[in-house]
Amino acid sequence: QVHFAESGGGLVQAGGSLSLSCTISGSGFGINSMGWYRQAPGKQREMVAVVGNPGSTIYADFVKDRFTISVDDAWRTVYLQMNSLSPDDTAVYYCYAALRLALGVRDTWGQGTQVTVSS
User: Fold this and answer.
1) In a 10 Å sphere around its CB, with 0-12 CB exposed, 13-18 middle and 19+ buried, how is residue 76 labelled?
2) What is the 3-state secondary structure (H, E, C) of the chain?
3) What is the pLDDT of residues 79-117, one digit of tens each?
4) What's the CA gap between 109 and 52, in Å, rounded?
5) How many CB atoms lie within 10 A of CB 16?
């Protein structure tokens, strides 16, 4: 059983910053990669940033050097520092992990945290 504990969403004005964190707990799995996806109203879920184990990082083009993803040494907590936020960044942000299980790899998402950027 895997459990996601996400935090850090909220309301911020355009140009402001927010920091998200997500801790994954449980047993019986390893983690191949961790990251963040987001889904805005009426849109499909899209990748924001993902970091692979070991340390390759991918950012979506729309991040444009505004966001920074990091993980802790235990590979159980992933962070997303978001700067220069705009109303276009308003979405539910989902923690993501590619779990390494006995039968293969499974993509898994947390329950999401709302980020709202006001103009």
Assistant:
1) middle
2) CEEEEEECCEEEECCCCEEEEEEEEECCCEEEEEEEEEECCCCCCEEEEEEECCCCEEECHHHCCCEEEEECCCCCEEEEEECCCCHHHCEEEEEEEEEEECCEEEEEECCCEEEEEEC
3) 999 999 999 999 999 999 999 999 999 999 999 999 999
4) 16
5) 15
